[in-house]
Amino acid sequence: MIIAAKPSGDIREVKGALKNSIEMKELGPSTFILGMEIDHDEAAGTLMIKQTCYIDDVAERFGQQNVKLGDNPCASGMKLTNMQSPGTVKERAKMQSRPYRSLIGCLFHIAACARPDIVFVVTQLPRFLENPEQPHWRAAIRVLCYLKTTREHGITYSGESGNFTVQAYSNADWGTILMTGVPSRASW
Protein backbone atom coordinates (compact mmCIF):
# COMPACT_ATOMS: atom_id res chain seq x y z
CA MET A 1 0.00 0.00 0.00
CA ILE A 2 1.29 3.43 -0.86
CA ILE A 3 0.26 6.42 1.22
CA ALA A 4 0.87 9.88 -0.18
CA ALA A 5 -0.01 13.29 1.23
CA LYS A 6 1.58 16.72 1.31
CA PRO A 7 1.59 17.28 5.08
CA SER A 8 3.64 14.52 6.73
CA GLY A 9 1.27 14.71 9.70
CA ASP A 10 -1.52 13.35 7.50
CA ILE A 11 0.64 10.38 6.55
CA ARG A 12 1.41 9.63 10.21
CA GLU A 13 -2.29 9.83 11.04
CA VAL A 14 -3.26 7.38 8.28
CA LYS A 15 -0.45 4.99 9.23
CA GLY A 16 -1.53 5.10 12.88
CA ALA A 17 -5.15 4.32 12.01
CA LEU A 18 -4.11 1.45 9.75
CA LYS A 19 -1.73 -0.02 12.33
CA ASN A 20 -4.61 -0.06 14.84
CA SER A 21 -6.78 -2.01 12.38
CA ILE A 22 -4.40 -4.35 10.58
CA GLU A 23 -0.94 -5.79 10.94
CA MET A 24 1.40 -3.89 8.65
CA LYS A 25 5.08 -3.46 8.01
CA GLU A 26 6.56 -0.15 6.92
CA LEU A 27 8.97 -0.56 4.01
CA GLY A 28 9.96 3.07 3.52
CA PRO A 29 9.55 5.27 0.47
CA SER A 30 8.31 3.53 -2.68
CA THR A 31 10.72 3.35 -5.59
CA PHE A 32 9.11 0.70 -7.79
CA ILE A 33 5.58 -0.72 -8.12
CA LEU A 34 3.71 -2.53 -10.91
CA GLY A 35 6.42 -1.86 -13.49
CA MET A 36 6.58 1.83 -12.59
CA GLU A 37 9.70 3.53 -11.28
CA ILE A 38 8.97 6.26 -8.76
CA ASP A 39 11.48 9.08 -8.36
CA HIS A 40 10.55 11.39 -5.50
CA ASP A 41 12.63 14.56 -5.40
CA GLU A 42 11.73 16.11 -2.05
CA ALA A 43 13.94 19.16 -2.58
CA ALA A 44 12.19 20.05 -5.85
CA GLY A 45 8.80 18.90 -4.57
CA THR A 46 8.26 16.57 -7.54
CA LEU A 47 7.36 12.96 -8.13
CA MET A 48 8.21 11.34 -11.46
CA ILE A 49 6.73 8.08 -12.68
CA LYS A 50 8.44 6.33 -15.59
CA GLN A 51 8.73 2.78 -16.92
CA THR A 52 12.29 2.42 -18.19
CA CYS A 53 12.77 -1.18 -17.02
CA TYR A 54 9.32 -2.29 -18.15
CA ILE A 55 9.85 -0.80 -21.62
CA ASP A 56 13.19 -2.63 -21.88
CA ASP A 57 11.50 -5.88 -20.81
CA VAL A 58 8.69 -5.45 -23.36
CA ALA A 59 11.19 -4.65 -26.12
CA GLU A 60 13.13 -7.81 -25.31
CA ARG A 61 9.96 -9.92 -25.05
CA PHE A 62 8.92 -8.87 -28.56
CA GLY A 63 12.42 -9.14 -30.05
CA GLN A 64 12.95 -5.40 -30.36
CA GLN A 65 15.86 -4.85 -27.96
CA ASN A 66 18.22 -3.74 -30.77
CA VAL A 67 15.69 -1.79 -32.80
CA LYS A 68 16.20 1.23 -35.00
CA LEU A 69 15.10 4.03 -32.74
CA GLY A 70 11.89 5.91 -33.51
CA ASP A 71 11.29 9.63 -33.19
CA ASN A 72 7.48 9.51 -33.03
CA PRO A 73 4.87 6.90 -32.09
CA CYS A 74 3.09 6.78 -35.45
CA ALA A 75 3.83 7.58 -39.04
CA SER A 76 2.52 10.83 -40.45
CA GLY A 77 -0.72 10.08 -42.26
CA MET A 78 -1.00 6.60 -40.75
CA LYS A 79 -4.24 4.99 -41.88
CA LEU A 80 -5.15 1.63 -40.40
CA THR A 81 -8.24 -0.04 -41.81
CA ASN A 82 -10.12 -3.33 -41.68
CA MET A 83 -9.37 -3.65 -45.38
CA GLN A 84 -5.74 -4.26 -44.42
CA SER A 85 -6.79 -7.30 -42.38
CA PRO A 86 -6.05 -10.74 -43.83
CA GLY A 87 -8.89 -12.14 -45.89
CA THR A 88 -7.83 -15.72 -46.52
CA VAL A 89 -7.27 -18.53 -44.05
CA LYS A 90 -3.61 -18.70 -45.14
CA GLU A 91 -3.11 -14.98 -44.49
CA ARG A 92 -4.75 -15.28 -41.05
CA ALA A 93 -2.55 -18.25 -40.12
CA LYS A 94 0.56 -16.22 -40.99
CA MET A 95 -0.43 -13.47 -38.54
CA GLN A 96 -1.39 -15.88 -35.75
CA SER A 97 2.32 -16.38 -35.01
CA ARG A 98 2.55 -12.69 -34.08
CA PRO A 99 1.66 -11.91 -30.43
CA TYR A 100 -0.31 -8.81 -31.47
CA ARG A 101 -2.83 -9.00 -28.63
CA SER A 102 -0.08 -9.30 -25.99
CA LEU A 103 1.86 -6.37 -27.44
CA ILE A 104 -1.25 -4.17 -27.43
CA GLY A 105 -1.85 -5.07 -23.77
CA CYS A 106 1.71 -4.05 -22.87
CA LEU A 107 1.37 -0.77 -24.78
CA PHE A 108 -1.92 -0.01 -22.99
CA HIS A 109 -0.26 -0.58 -19.61
CA ILE A 110 2.55 1.82 -20.49
CA ALA A 111 0.13 4.44 -21.83
CA ALA A 112 -2.10 4.23 -18.75
CA CYS A 113 0.71 4.36 -16.19
CA ALA A 114 3.20 6.89 -17.44
CA ARG A 115 3.04 7.73 -21.15
CA PRO A 116 0.02 9.74 -22.30
CA ASP A 117 2.00 10.71 -25.43
CA ILE A 118 1.21 7.30 -26.99
CA VAL A 119 -2.48 7.14 -26.07
CA PHE A 120 -3.82 8.20 -29.47
CA VAL A 121 -2.08 5.53 -31.51
CA VAL A 122 -2.44 2.85 -28.82
CA THR A 123 -6.22 3.33 -28.77
CA GLN A 124 -6.34 2.82 -32.56
CA LEU A 125 -4.57 -0.56 -32.52
CA PRO A 126 -7.13 -2.71 -30.62
CA ARG A 127 -9.64 -2.29 -33.44
CA PHE A 128 -7.75 -5.06 -35.21
CA LEU A 129 -7.29 -7.54 -32.34
CA GLU A 130 -9.43 -10.20 -33.99
CA ASN A 131 -7.84 -9.99 -37.41
CA PRO A 132 -4.54 -8.05 -37.47
CA GLU A 133 -2.34 -7.79 -40.56
CA GLN A 134 1.25 -6.67 -41.12
CA PRO A 135 0.44 -2.91 -41.22
CA HIS A 136 -1.20 -3.21 -37.78
CA TRP A 137 1.76 -5.18 -36.39
CA ARG A 138 4.25 -2.67 -37.85
CA ALA A 139 2.28 0.22 -36.31
CA ALA A 140 2.44 -1.45 -32.88
CA ILE A 141 6.16 -2.15 -33.25
CA ARG A 142 6.71 1.48 -34.25
CA VAL A 143 5.16 2.57 -30.93
CA LEU A 144 7.50 0.19 -29.12
CA CYS A 145 10.52 1.61 -31.01
CA TYR A 146 9.44 5.12 -30.02
CA LEU A 147 9.12 4.02 -26.39
CA LYS A 148 12.57 2.47 -26.50
CA THR A 149 13.97 5.77 -27.83
CA THR A 150 12.18 7.81 -25.14
CA ARG A 151 12.39 5.21 -22.37
CA GLU A 152 13.49 7.78 -19.77
CA HIS A 153 10.38 9.93 -20.31
CA GLY A 154 7.52 9.81 -17.85
CA ILE A 155 5.04 11.94 -15.95
CA THR A 156 6.23 14.47 -13.38
CA TYR A 157 3.86 15.68 -10.71
CA SER A 158 4.55 18.89 -8.82
CA GLY A 159 3.68 19.52 -5.21
CA GLU A 160 2.65 23.09 -5.93
CA SER A 161 -0.80 23.97 -4.74
CA GLY A 162 -3.31 25.89 -6.77
CA ASN A 163 -6.21 25.38 -9.07
CA PHE A 164 -4.96 23.76 -12.23
CA THR A 165 -7.15 22.79 -15.12
CA VAL A 166 -5.88 20.51 -17.83
CA GLN A 167 -7.37 21.27 -21.20
CA ALA A 168 -6.30 19.46 -24.32
CA TYR A 169 -7.50 18.91 -27.83
CA SER A 170 -6.24 16.33 -30.25
CA ASN A 171 -6.88 15.57 -33.88
CA ALA A 172 -3.79 13.44 -34.16
CA ASP A 173 -4.65 11.78 -37.45
CA TRP A 174 -5.54 15.08 -39.18
CA GLY A 175 -8.28 13.31 -41.02
CA THR A 176 -10.72 10.53 -40.50
CA ILE A 177 -10.81 7.03 -39.23
CA LEU A 178 -11.23 4.99 -42.39
CA MET A 179 -13.35 2.37 -40.66
CA THR A 180 -16.15 4.83 -39.94
CA GLY A 181 -15.36 7.98 -41.88
CA VAL A 182 -15.78 9.97 -38.67
CA PRO A 183 -13.07 12.47 -37.70
CA SER A 184 -10.93 11.16 -34.89
CA ARG A 185 -10.84 13.80 -32.19
CA ALA A 186 -10.59 13.84 -28.47
CA SER A 187 -10.96 16.61 -25.97
CA TRP A 188 -10.71 16.46 -22.25
Instruction: Please state the average pLDDT score.
Output: 82
Q: What proportion strand?
A: 5-15%
Main sheet specs: 4 strands, antiparallel
Number of strands: 6
Number of helices: 6
- The SS-based structural class is alpha+beta
Proportion of helical residues: 25-40%
- Indicate the low-confidence ranges by residue numbers: 174-180
Strand order of the largest sheet: 1-2-3-4
Terminal Cα span: 30 Å
SSE arrangement:
Blueprint: H1 8-21, E1 32-33, E2 36-41, E3 46-50, H2 52-61, H3 89-96, H4 100-113, H5 119-124, H6 134-149, E4 154-158, E5 169-170, E6 186-187
Antiparallel strand pairs: 1-2, 2-3, 3-4, 5-6
Helix pairs in contact: 2-6, 4-6
Structural summary, described in words:
With 188 residues, this protein is α+β, with helices and mostly antiparallel strands. It has one domain (35-187). The protein is built from six helices and six strands; from the N terminus they run αβββαααααβββ. It has helices at residues 8-21, 52-61, 89-96, 100-113, 119-124, 134-149, and strands at 32-33, 36-41, 46-50, 154-158, 169-170, 186-187. A hairpin with a 2-residue loop joins strand 1 and strand 2 (36-41). Helix 2 packs antiparallel against helix 6. The radius of gyration is 21 Å and the shape is elongated. The two termini are 30 Å apart. This is Reverse transcriptase Ty1/copia-type domain-containing protein.
